[in-house]
Amino acid sequence: KKIVIVGGVAGGSTAAARLRRLDEHAEIVMFEKGEHISFANCGLPYYIGETIKDRQKLLVQTVESMASRYKLDIRTFSEVIQINREKRSLVVRNVQTNEKYEETFDELILSPGARPIVPPIPGIEDAAALFTLRNIPDTDRIKSFIDNEKPKHAVVVGGGFIGLEMAENLHERGMEVTVVEMAEQVMAPLDYEMAAIIHKHLKEKGIHLLLNDGVKSFEENGTKVITQNGTEITTDFILLSIGVRPENELAKEAGLDVGKRGGIQVNEYLQTNDPNIYAIGDAIEVKDYMNGQPAMVPLAWPANRQGRAVADNIYGKKVSYKGTLGTSIAKVFDYTVAVTGNNEKTLDRLGISHEVVHVHPVSHAGYYPGASPIALKLVFDKVTGTIYGAQAVGKEGVDKRIDIIATAIKGGLTVLDLPDLELAYAPPYSSAKDPVNMAGYVAS
Ligand code: FAD
Questions:
Q1: What pLDDT does residue 385 have?
Q2: CA distance 371 to 369
Q3: Rounded distance, CA 174 to CA 153, Å?
Q4: Phi-psi label, residue 362: left if phi above 0, alpha if psi -120 to 50, beta otherwise
Q5: Nearest to 362 by CA among 338, 395, 332
Q6: Helix/strand/coil for 122
Q7: pLDDT below 50 — which residues of the chain?
Q8: pLDDT tens string 66-85
Q9: 17-37 core/surface letters (b: 16 or more CB in 10 A; e: else)
Q10: CB of 45 closer than 6 A to ligand 1?
Q11: Cα–Cα distance between 48 and 217 in angstroms, integer?
């Protein structure tokens, strides 16, 4: 069997490794248009901020190590530019020589990811120090600009997870940072009152935060950012982080179905409308695990899970992907922000009635040094007890509580079960009544 993979990072590499474990003899070809495969996207902000000092550490697998370990035919600098479904073949362009050639497949896996959105804001073309962050070359450009030009001020456009991680890391590099966010709050997966804790913390850390405001234009080669509300910011570095758009061109041109927001559509076995072509990762439209609505959730866990599932499915295992819960986490200076499932904004939009509890327990026993409060919000159905989602913000122990609730949701537990979760306790770690138990008591 000859299996071809488009995209060699999170989803693509996972699928390749799993395919090899399932079949010693398959011919597996992986095309990647960039130079690197299997790198740590999620670590990029921390390398720029110099928490991660060694660039080598970002390269989880090199072409050589992965090719020899898994007996793969890995071709970097190779962009797949066309899919010919009738002939079951691809046109590949060597991006260094521009040479084109054809390659056949029996089964095809698309994991091309999503790219940063760059809207046609007036002046954007001439903004000299404007960056987006997706891969190693972007990271190298940003890092060397900071190392060489020593910018004093940065504007981060977009207050999502990547925007805020970068705001922190740019601040670490000594820059004064302004975050411009179109919505009334940062971090869309949080509800407003939870995001407000982060707004306050960002200000405490000296980050300038402009909410309900967008960029109207860039002027003077991007050294002036003019916002829609008329604020003029003088700067020497701009990061655009307003979201990503699925890389769907190949799929579209081949007549594969894409959804309203551009995600490649797949069935529960991750097959497109062509049964020999599968798609995974940031490029696909998934189902929201809670409400079943189409969703775009560009996160590493789904890409990895789908990468493994797709390989299993090609080998007839029928692993069904049930949807994405959107469990996610980020560090924002001294705070951790984490969420799972649906927030109130989403449930309100869909007209799903729900109940909410807020608790503010301490992360571990109050009498043991270092305890700090966790703001924990639980959203659930009052009648059935179904847990719709949870959000937590705090300095310690936030990750554990959200992961417990994410597990409870996937396990089909209700709020009535939360008091009965028997969780590990000693004073440095928790309380005899854990914050999750507490939320459960209040909810039931
Ligand atoms: P990618 O990993 O983006 O890989 C797609 C690859 O396909 C790319 O290398 C691209 O060059 C290649 N490609 C595209 N088109 C073609 C073509 N036609 N031919 C050949 N190759 C092609 N997620 C988290 O869960 N937690 C985090 O903390 C987190 N932090 C992040 C921080 C940053 C800065 C970024 C950019 C992302 C972060 N993510 C995080 C998101 C996570 O990295 C992605 O969800 C994940 O990488 C998606 O995997 P993928 O395989 O779909 O796409």
A1: 98
A2: 6
A3: 9
A4: beta
A5: 395
A6: coil
A7: none
A8: 999 999 999 999 999 999 99
A9: bbbbeeeeebebbbbbbbebb
A10: yes
A11: 26
Distance 221 CA to ligand 1 centre (A): 30
From residue 126, alpha-carbon distances to 123, 133, 146, 222, 229 in Å are: 6, 18, 19, 7, 22
Q: What is the pLDDT of residue 429?
A: 97
162 pocket-lining for ligand 1 (C-beta < 6 Å): yes
For residues 393, 239, 46, 14, the Cα torsion angle rounded to the nearest 10 degrees is 90
**What type of residue sits at position 230?**
G
Helix axes 300-314, 10-22, angle to 10 degrees: 30
| pLDDT, tens digit (0-9, with 9 covering 90-100), for 331-370 | 999 999 999 999 999 999 999 999 999 999 999 999 999 9
Q: Please report where in the chains the tokens 């999503």 appear, as a residue.
A: 114
From the alpha carbon of 301, which atom of ligand 1 is closest?
25
**Separation of alpha carbons 37 and 268, rounded Å:** 27
Phi-psi region of 412 (alpha: psi -120 to 50; beta: other; left: phi over 0): left
Burial (CB count within 10 angstroms: exposed 0-12, middle 13-18, buried 19+), residue 147? exposed
What spacing in Å lies between the alpha carbon of 219 and ligand 1's midpoint?
A: 31
Q: Are 32 and 92 in contact (CB under 8 A)?
A: no
Give per-residue pLDDT as tens, 182-209: 999 999 999 999 999 999 999 999 999 9
The Cα 94–Cα 23 span in angstroms is 28
Q: How far apart are CA 66 and CA 224, in angstroms?
A: 45
How far apart CA 421 and CA 433 sit, in angstroms, is 10
Q: How far apart are CA 354 and CA 385, in angstroms?
A: 10
Tokens of residue 175, six digits: 């820059």
Amino acid at 327: T
Token representation of residue 49: 């901020």
Buried b (16+ CB within 10 A) or exposed e, 176-204: ebbbbbbbebbbbbbbeebbbbbbebbee
pLDDT at 327: 98
Which is nearest to 307 in space by CA: 278, 286, 327, 285? 278
Q: How far is CA 438 from CA 96, 153, 288, 364, 424, in A?
A: 59, 43, 27, 13, 14
Q: Quick one: 317 exposed, middle or buried, by C-beta within 10 A (0-12, 13-18, 19+)?
A: exposed
Q: Does residue 42 have an active-site annotation?
A: yes
Atom of ligand 1 nearest to the CA of 78: 20
